[in-house]
Design goal:
With about 325 residues, the protein is of the alpha+beta class. It is about 55% helix and about 10% strand. It has a four-stranded mixed sheet. Strands 2-6-5 form a three-stranded antiparallel sheet, with no helix packed on it. β3 and β4 form a beta hairpin. GO terms for molecular function: acyl-CoA dehydrogenase activity; flavin adenine dinucleotide binding.
Length: about 325
């Protein structure tokens, strides 16, 4: 059902120069119970788990449909629900403010109705659910045209609800894992496109798939995509089974993000080599997924940040605890 919904929308709405949230499509997803897929049923949600949410995110990313499902459901509305604040039918995203009340590259802020902001005044973290009109918003986009806006709030006049460091840490891990899931979906689509092209394209009297160099490049794509997916699924399984409390969850999420980020480098390079000139055209769908993987791997923590998280965790565990850190 998810695939059919996104496939139909993608066929009717080919990608353009920019990306914006389609209110009519959002309403349709809401009617299907997909907008608040993981929300509690007593609060109007569908009561699903992160496993179902991961399939939904992968279906959207795999069809090239850009929409703030994760930011709305898995991050901002979850955060409100965690502290007992209501979440109505407004479209939301989340922002981590610095000491000046500023947050850069906030996903979908300009097209959202409300923004759940997190900041750290003296004494601990707080959150507030603000209407977009309460923030100063400067539009921006990422590599694939998704809104990544700068927002500024007046911290002096801002009051909120106190939250724990553990909840903020869980928010960071969830946001990071969201992007890893989306990257894996993009890598899978890149692999599919490469196999289809190499099978159908004939060069020097035989299909590209018969050339050993092409076979090696596609094999590398497949292995890197599989590694990223394995690391991501390991982190997702540990997170769900432990209620996001596994002792090694930060390491597993960091490993997933590191693997997905480095896999993107190999997959994007090889995919464009396999496709040649046609892969650089706007008409071909390859760029929808290669640029997406490169954009998402730098959001909610850079590749360098997550590489350092993996290294720090391994060094802290030392030789005696490294195996337990990896296996849980």
């Amino acid at each position: 059902m998810m695939g059919a919904v996104f496939d139909e929308y993608r066929e009717q709405h080919p990608p353009g120069a920019g990306v914006s949230r389609d209110p009519a499509f959002w309403q349709r997803l809401d009617e299907l119970g997909l907008v608040r897929l993981t929300g509690a049923e007593q609060h109007g949600g569908s009561g699903a788990s992160w496993y179902e949410a991961a399939e939904l995110l992968a279906a959207a990313a795999g069809h090239g449909v850009r929409i703030p499902l994760a930011e709305h459901d898995l991050l901002s509305c979850w955060l409100l629900e965690s502290v007992g604040l209501p979440s109505d039918g407004a479209v939301r995203t989340v922002a981590m403010l610095d000491k000046q009340g500023r947050a850069a590259a906030v996903p979908w802020a300009a097209s959202a109705d409300r923004v759940v902001v997190v900041w750290r005044p003296a004494g601990g973290y707080q959150i507030a659910d603000l209407a977009i009109e309460q923030l100063v918003t400067t539009p921006g986009v990422n590599l694939i045209g998704e809104p990544r806006d700068t927002v500024v709030a007046d911290l002096a006049g801002l009051s909120g609800v106190a939250v724990t460091l553990a909840l903020v840490t869980e928010l960071r891990l969830k946001a990071a894992l969201v992007r890893s899931i989306q990257i894996c979906a993009a890598l899978d689509q890149i692999l599919r496109l490469c196999v289809e092209h190499a099978t159908a394209r004939v060069q020097f009297g035989r299909p590209l798939s018969k050339f050993q160099a092409v076979q090696h490049m596609i094999s590398d794509i497949a292995s890197e995509a599989a590694l990223a997916r394995a690391a991501t699924e390991a982190a997702l399984t540990a997170a769900v089974s432990s209620g996001w409390s596994a002792f090694n969850l930060n390491f597993l999420v960091a490993a997933a993000r590191s693997c997905a980020g480095h896999a993107s480098s190999v997959v994007v390079r090889n995919a464009h080599q396999v496709h040649g000139a046609i892969g650089t055209t706007r008409e071909h769908r390859l760029h929808e997924f290669t640029r997406a993987a490169l954009a998402w791997r730098s959001e909610f923590g850079s590749m360098r940040y997550w590489d350092e998280q993996v290294t720090d965790a391994a060094l802290h565990a030392s030789a005696g605890g490294l195996w337990d850190l990896i296996t849980g």
